[in-house]
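Margin note: ligand = NAP.
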Amino acid sequence: MDLGIRGKVALVTASSAGMGRNIANALAAEGANVVLFARSADKLQAVAAEIEDQHGVRALPVSGDMLSSEDVERLRASVQQAFGGLDILVLNTGRAPNPLRATLEETEEARWHEAYNNQLWSAIQVAKTLLPLMLGRGWGRVVAITSASVKSPMPHHALSTVFRAGMTAYVKHLANELGAQGITANCVAPALIDTSHRVGGAAYTPAQTEARKRLTPLGRMGAQEEVTGTVAFLASRQAGFITGSTVLVEGGMVGALI
Ligand SMILES: NC(=O)c1ccc[n+]([C@@H]2O[C@H](COP(=O)([O-])OP(=O)(O)OC[C@H]3O[C@@H](n4cnc5c(N)ncnc54)[C@H](OP(=O)(O)O)[C@@H]3O)[C@@H](O)[C@H]2O)c1
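Resulting structure:
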């Protein structure tokens, strides 16, 4: 299926590694030019080179911090200068503070501020600064990476759930306000996705991973491509009548009927 995004311009935040990098690759494989944004300039350069080499599209690395308004403004100026506008915005972020704890044990104000900054404010700062580049083009896609915890809160995940829920609300407001511009806004809510590739090791021990596999009817962890494919679909022409929604990518872990 041709997703209809060949030649479009896609910005993927938090894309020097992990899911963000994989999402940028997936969009580039469909012919989109990609803008990469994260703090590690050297890693971003390598990801951009890999994408240009493998997919024959343009990949623009812009190094900076999603929490710095100056860096995000420089990102906006770079996208404007290189491409003149933006079609697809994927709001991926860094992770919640590690390790996660039981809710009543989350007593440190600094951890709550860190979680808010990493998972909510960072994405809002990018959205409010970059979305003006998407207006007036008659077409656009916003996809935010949240967590399945917004549908079914997972133990020890309060620091994530609280701010992912906030992001879900923000995206719903965007969907309502941007629809008339032909722009959709949706969330992809993953859980139990394999991160064993991660530099510094997976988020869970082998024993924890085995226990987590049993949380789903499928009895396994999710593959990165099962998240990236969902993001690419929501960015596609064919997903044009889906907006304000959250698509779970959690192997059926959430037990709700709808
Ligand atoms: N795996 C799952 O099952 C699952 C489930 C639910 C949600 N998620 C969420 O999915 C997201 C991606 O996960 P992941 O495993 O790919 O994480 P990861 O491997 O730790 O990668 C995080 C990325 O975020 C970038 N980053 C962090 N802080 C940043 C900042 N302030 N400004 C710019 N870039 C920043 C990092 O690059 P630099 O260090 O170069 O800046 C890196 O590229 C996370 O938010 C995670 O919580 C994952």
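The first helix runs from residue 18 to 29.
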